[in-house]
Structure formats: structure tokens, C-alpha cells
From TrEMBL, chains A, B:
Keyword Transferase assigned: no
Gene Ontology molecular-function annotations: (S)-2-hydroxy-acid oxidase activity; FAD binding
Protein source organism: Piscibacillus halophilus
Obligatory cofactor(s): FAD
Protein name as catalogued: Glycolate oxidase
Assigned protein family: Belongs to the FAD-binding oxidoreductase/transferase type 4 family.
Highest taxon in the source lineage: Bacteria
Annotated GO CC locations: glycolate oxidase complex
Location of the FAD-binding PCMH-type domain: 37-216
Length: 468, 468
């Protein structure tokens, strides 16, 4: 618990109306989108600018009070839960687009801007910000930066990190630094920009970011292919790549997902389907139509029982609807939905999905898998009930085995959600003891008093979902 | 000086024939491509594998002997000179391509492989490794990784860092870690891969790397535009970007460079030309011919006095010849050539070139500027004589002022060459005192005994070129 004098100091910095201490207010920021991780903060503040954030950080450092920076709280790995109490910092008052630079193709924003607002704003000018996490309608760019968010366009366009050119950051000692610039090339010292992106709020607080933009693709076309076998779908992915094409979207749904989607949306997907691929290509008109035609041929050649090509934007939306509805369709089937993101090299998707299905059966848990086939980023999603302790133990064991297989296949425990508190017990599996050691040293180099989002990324103990 | 017993231990690790202690041998590795920085190592070793490197590092850590990893020594910022003596590690025995994975579009290589060998090998399979530093015919991929090398294709395709997916690294304590994977998405912990790329050998020794490949562009077309004013050339660059095109190459030469090239190569460049742009586009046939046509129109519209489009590969080679010959043409005009790489946002190229010319006049030094106009990465190149102490002092002052202007324009002290020892006195200008402090903390987090390429990046004193 923080003292009253600490709260008083916070009020002096940001003003009384921007400090929240009520029970209801603290409750609202005690959880994020991760089931079963809840922990109340001591206080929630909404600073107005970098200077106020710097003062808050200095105050917290002096009193060794934990700080949890929080965007819209869509985190799926308990990355924004105030596990150790302390101060939750909100960015709702830092929500301005500062500049669009059409000559250097950059946009400079405050961390509280909603991701989709950025996309819409630049597209109106014929420009394009590619990273499109599924949460983009509500997530903030600050959250995306802290988590290095991915999205559907990752295969062709990369992830958030690939588009962050410069940052303003408040360090854990309260000092403000600026990294990078409106520069495609900059090798002056260690790359703090790329180190900070994806550091989950454990190294500093992002207060401003300059993002790289590219010209908006001329057009986009959409295709849906339905398969009776996962291997045929997976073989199609390989064939597309082998034929030197890089689709803008290459999404996958397995049978349990298709069933859930069909029950929910009645799109007419055949029940015998074992896999669906949603494929989109964007770019110049001539290239897109040629690629889509060739991709349709490859789908059929690899054994697709149906290939639908959208001729209008309405048809395209209808084809996308199934994949878009996947999480909602699955979520309505059980009280608790756990969305994971074990990721493997593209070539290992079929064997990985088979392992996931085998593991689900072994532990008698319900798992549907969908995700980004083009980049091997799968979302095995468990339908369960957090109140059922016995089942949750089986869920935990199933995911443990899924993570182990992901690593065995040359993959990782998290492709785009982050480690947070939830996956911290597994981080050493991916990076090794020596890797974990060096990461802890980096953390200490930035934050010797461990005030920035403590207990995230690095497990203090092996607490997992079940050990609440 | 290291002791005989230390040399004996090295011989036990790598074998006598792979330890070099002769005066001539040490002399050969006492310098890199940076004028005026020379310093003899104590010993040069050529290990055969990761295990031997790990043993060498452990030995050096025990005796606190500096280690300088060295590829082909093409470094331009005194990044591979053994400033503090110690052991130079060569990678000539780690020169194997380990695997080409056509399904996941990756190539895995040892650090001693020549960059161009990688490009040629994958192009033969219809694949493409885009980073193309000018030194690619002799530089090693290990050197490129340590320096995060750029190249001519940076605007469209990015730099080395954008293509490094995974590393095997020997840490300064001798432990071996593996970072990343054949993965487009991986957010498990801090991004050690991107931190190590460009860390100039100060954090660890790269012993293996997995590189991302993309499909090889179908075709490429080349255009040369000649201008009587720098502003018109610069305006053309802006117009191309404003018209949503991203050329594969967008190179610039100023008047002194054109003069030097013309004297050397007799390409028929008009002597009144103040600027030349070499522009290339690659991609699908239809896109390339349309883009090149539109770019030619823009060049003329902005005032180009001549626009040449190559119709054959021979013609393209002829158009490229001037830019390719730039450094050689300049280098023959004086005993010492100092090639710099101050970099600015693309929009600031014209004002920056004007400042460079003004500064050259002010200090009465000869500077020709060429470089990558698309990404603002300029190469102001000074023709001087290192034996003339008084002139070198003026050269130093001129570059100091150039760096200061680069930063004033929102740029950086180095776009693709690295900080090394040479630019270490200027690093704080770019990253600030707080930024420098955090970088020093990161260095200490990896290398507490400061054995890995010491005195690089971080200046111990303000030693510069002149203070030998």
C-alpha cells in the first residue's frame, strides 16, 4: 500500500481529477484481457504530458512504488495487470496525432492514440500503416509498441517493430530520452528503439513515437479455400511461397474453429471441412489479379474442395467474416476463453496443429486453432471454465505441452501477445538460462530498483493460471 | 602485452598453425579501411568453430585480454582496429553456408561467408537477399551483422537488421546463446537479435546467423537524370515519394563527385551538371515499366536537363558505372580519402548538401558528396593527406560541423558505417547524455570486464583522427 503523502504528491503533479483511488476505479484497472489474473493497483493516474510522467516516475523511484503503463488493457498475457500493486499510468490524455510528414512518410503520435485511428488517418492521405493486430479498433499504439503487436498482415509487411522509427521514452530514473529519427538508416550506438519496442513496459514509458508509413496498395483481392485435410491446406501455403508469392493475408482455421464459426455465423462452410484458408493479396491491379488467379489454381491443385474468389468488396467482407468471427464464435461456447499464440516456422504448421489436437485429446480439453498460417503464428484457443480448478489444471498442462512442442519445432512460446506474467515461467524454455540471465541484466541496466512493470517477463516463482 | 603462457593456451585451443604472432602478421591486422587509426594486436587467431571461440573468450575473460572480432576489415570508423591490443579473431575458417530453407525462405550461414556469395547463391534459386553494402564483394556477413550494414537498396528493402532472424552468439563470459528463429513473429523476451545486430562486436561474437530471404524481383530497370541544380534533383526525390513510388535505388552525386567521375571514367557527363540521380526500380514487369516511365516524366518536369533510360543490361551497367566509380574516382585525387556517412531525413538532403559545400569552403578542404538520396544517407568524402597535420585539423573541424548540422536537421552521425572508435566522441551528440549512459549500462550488462572490442562506440577521451 502506498501512503497518503504519496497520493498527495501525485495529485500535486497531475491534479486531483486525474488521480483515481476509488474502489470501483481501482477494480476497473485490476485486470486486462487475460483470464484469471487480477490484482488491484493502489492508484490510477492520467498524466497530461511527458513532464508529468517524468515527475511520476521520479516519485515512484524515490518510494520504490511499482509502475504499470496501460493502454486499453487488451493484453492477453497478463502484461498490464498490476501484480505488485502500485501506480497504473493511463494514456487517455496523450491521444494526439502530432504530425503527418508526407515527405518523409512518417506519422508522429502520442501513445494513447487508437491504432485504427492511425490507419484510417493515413489511408485518407493514400498512405499505409500495415500492422493490424485484431484488437486495433480499441488498442492504443502505445500498447502495440510495448508488446510489438503483430496482426494479419505480418507475413508480407512485418510487425509493429518494423514501423517504429523513433521514440521518446521516460526512463525508470525519470530522465527523458529520444531514440532514432525520421531515418531509414541510423547506426549511432545500440538500437534502443528496437530494444524498447516489445519490452512490455519493463524498461521505460513510451511518451511519443514516430512511425514509418508506406504508400497505400492500389487494390486488394480476397479468396477463401476449403479443405478436407489440414495437410492439403498446409501444402497450399508451401506452394504459394515456393511460387514466389507473398500474400498480404494467409489465415488458417481448423475444424473445431470452422464448426464454432458455422454455428455462430451460418456462412455455409461445409461441416466436413478440416481446414479453411483465407488468402488476400494487395498491390498494383495487374499483380493482384495475376497472383489471386495463380493462388486459386494452386489451392485447387493441392486438393481444395471449394475456392471462392470475391468479385466485390461485399463478397470479400463475407469471405473475411468467418475468420473475423472466429474468436467471438469460440468465446460464446464456454465461460472462459484462453487465447494462446504458440508460433512455429511456416513449414511446421501441419505437424503443430496435429500435435495440438492430440494434446487436447490427451488432457480432455477443448481447443480450436486458427491463426496466421503465412507466418506460423497459431492461436490455439481453449474453451474452458476458470471456476473449475481441476479442468484448469489440465488446461495448464495442455498449454505447457503445446509450448514445449512449439519450441521443439523451432518456434516460440509467444508470437505476438507477449510474455507478461502469464508466460514468464516458460521464457527460459525459449531463450535458455544464459539468454534469460542476459535479459535480466538488461532489465537491471535500465531499472535497477525494478519499479517498471515488475514481475512481468521474469518469473519470480512458477506461478501459473491455476495457482491463484 | 599478453604473456607466452597465454599464447600457449591459445595454441592448445586452435592449433599452432591458426595462431599468428609474427610481426608481419600482426601488422596486417593492425588497421582497417579507416585512415589514421592503426594499432597492433598481440595475437591473431583463426578458430574453427563455436566451441573454440567460446574457449578463447573464456581465456580472454580470465586474463582480461581485449578481443576484436574481424571480418574482412572494410570498416570505415575504426571499428575493427585493435586499439587496446589483445586478440584479433578471424572468421576465415567459419565460411560455410549451412542451409538454404526454401520453405521458410531462410539461409543459415557462418559469419565468414562473403556477402556477395550469399546474394549469388540465393539468386540462383530465385530468391533475394537485399542488403547490398558497397563492400559486399569482400565484406563478410559477420561484419555486416556487427555493423548493421546498409547499402543502395535501403530505401525500398531496409538494412541488414531487417533480414537477421536468428543468431548464435558467444557472450563475453564464453556462454553460447541462440536468439530468435525462423519466425516472422517472436516476442519472447527482449529482442537480443536486433540489439546484437549493429552492436559493433562490443556485446558478443556472432558465430552463426539465419537470414530472411524474399522472392527475387522479376525484373529491374535503370534511369539516369542529370540536373543543373541540386534543388531540382532533391525536388525530384520528393515528387517520386509523393507519387507513392518506392524505387529500389535512388542514388545521388553532387558536382565535385561528377567532376571526379567524369575525369576518371569519361562517361560524357556534362560539366555544368550540379547533380545526378541514378534511379532503379525492380519488381513485376508491368509495375517496373510503368514506374520508370512515370519517374522519367517527373525528372523532366522538375527540370532535369537529360534523362537516360537503359534499354538493355549493358546500357544499365553503363548508367550505373558513374555511381559505382564514385569512390575510386575521388580516391585517386589525393593521398588520403575519408568517407563519411552523416545521414538526414530525406526531406533535408538539399539543405544538407548546401551546408556541406559551405563547410568545405569555410575550412578550405575538398569534399565531394554522393550517396543514397532515397534514405538521406549521404557520403561526404574528403580528399586530403593524412601526413599534413594542419590540413587534418581542418578536416576534423569540417566533419565535426557536418555532424552537428546532420543532427540539427534531425539526422544522425552515422547511417551505415558505425561509430567505432572514430566517431565515439560524437555519439553523445546524437543520443544525449542519458542515452549514452543507458548504452554504457547495456554494455556492462553483457560485458562487465569490458573485453569485447573495448574503446569502440564509447569514447574514453575525445581522441580524434588528428590526435594520433
Amino acid at each position: 500500500m502506498v501512503r497518503d503523502s504519496f497520493i498527495k504528491s501525485l495529485i500535486e503533479i497531475v491534479g486531483e481529477s486525474h488521480v483515481e483511488c476509488s474502489e470501483a476505479g481501482l477494480m476497473a484497472y485490476s485486470f486486462d484481457a487475460t483470464p484469471n489474473f487480477q490484482s488491484k493497483p493502489d492508484v490510477v493516474v492520467s498524466p497530461a504530458n511527458t513532464e508529468e510522467i517524468s515527475q511520476i516516475v521520479k516519485l515512484c523511484e524515490k518510494h520504490q512504488v511499482p509502475i504499470v503503463p496501460r493502454g486499453s488493457g487488451t493484453n492477453l498475457a497478463a502484461g498490464t495487470t498490476p501484480t505488485q500493486g502500485g501506480v497504473v499510468i493511463l494514456f487517455n490524455r496523450l491521444d494526439q496525432i502530432i504530425e503527418i510528414d508526407e515527405e518523409n512518410l512518417t506519422i508522429t503520435v502520442q501513445p494513447g492514440v487508437i491504432t485504427k485511428t492511425i490507419c484510417d488517418t493515413v489511408e485518407a492521405k493514400g498512405l499505409f500503416y500495415p500492422p493490424d493486430p485484431s484488437s486495433m479498433k480499441i488498442s492504443t499504439i502505445g500498447g502495440n509498441i510495448n508488446e510489438n503487436s503483430g496482426g494479419l498482415r505480418g507475413l508480407k509487411y512485418g510487425v509493429t517493430k518494423d514501423y517504429i522509427l523513433a521514440l521518446e521514452v521516460v526512463l525508470p530514473n525519470g530522465e527523458v530520452i529520444r531514440t532514432g529519427g525520421k531515418l531509414a538508416k541510423d547506426v549511432a550506438g545500440y538500437d534502443l528503439t528496437k530494444l524498447l519496442v516489445g519490452s512490455e513496459g519493463t524498461l521505460g514509458i513510451v511518451t511519443e513515437a514516430t512511425l514509418k508509413l508506406i504508400p497505400k496498395p492500389e487494390t486488394k483481392q480476397t479468396l477463401l479455400a476449403i479443405y478436407e485435410s489440414i495437410d492439403q491446406a498446409s501444402q497450399t501455403v508451401s506452394s504459394i511461397i515456393a511460387n514466389k508469392m507473398t500474400p498480404a493475408t494467409l489465415e488458417f482455421m481448423d475444424q473445431p474453429t470452422i464448426h464454432a464459426v458455422e454455428e455462430y455465423s451460418h456462412l455455409g462452410l461445409p461441416t466436413q471441412a478440416e481446414a479453411v484458408l483465407l488468402i488476400e493479396q494487395d498491390g498494383p491491379h495487374s499483380v493482384v489479379s495475376e497472383d489471386i488467379e495463380q493462388i486459386a489454381l494452386l489451392c485447387r491443385k493441392e486438393g481444395a474442395i471449394d475456392v471462392k474468389i470475391a468479385n466485390t468488396e461485399e463478397e470479400a467482407n463475407r469471405l473475411r467474416e468467418g475468420r473475423r468471427a472466429a474468436l467471438s464464435a469460440i468465446a460464446r461456447l464456454s465461460p472462459t476463453t484462453i487465447l494462446e499464440d504458440a508460433t512455429v516456422p511456416r513449414s511446421e504448421i501441419a505437424p503443430m496443429v496435429r500435435q495440438i489436437n492430440r494434446i487436447a485429446e490427451k488432457y480432455n480439453v477443448r481447443i480450436a486453432t486458427f491463426g496466421h498460417a503465412g507466418d506460423g503464428n497459431l492461436h490455439p484457443t481453449c474453451m474452458t471454465d476458470a471456476r473449475n480448478q481441476e479442468e484448469m489444471e489440465r488446461v495448464e498442462k495442455a498449454f505447457e505441452e503445446i509450448f514445449a512442442y512449439a519450441i521443439e519445432f523451432g518456434g516460440t512460446i509467444t508470437g505476438e501477445h507477449g510474455v507478461g506474467e502469464m508466460k514468464s515461467p516458460y521464457l527460459a524454455w525459449k531463450v535458455g538460462d544464459a539468454g534469460l540471465e542476459i535479459m535480466k541484466n538488461i532489465k537491471a541496466a535500465f531499472d535497477p530498483h525494478n519499479i517498471m512493470n515488475p514481475r512481468k517477463m521474469f518469473a519470480k516463482e512458477t506461478r501459473k493460471r491455476i495457482a491463484l
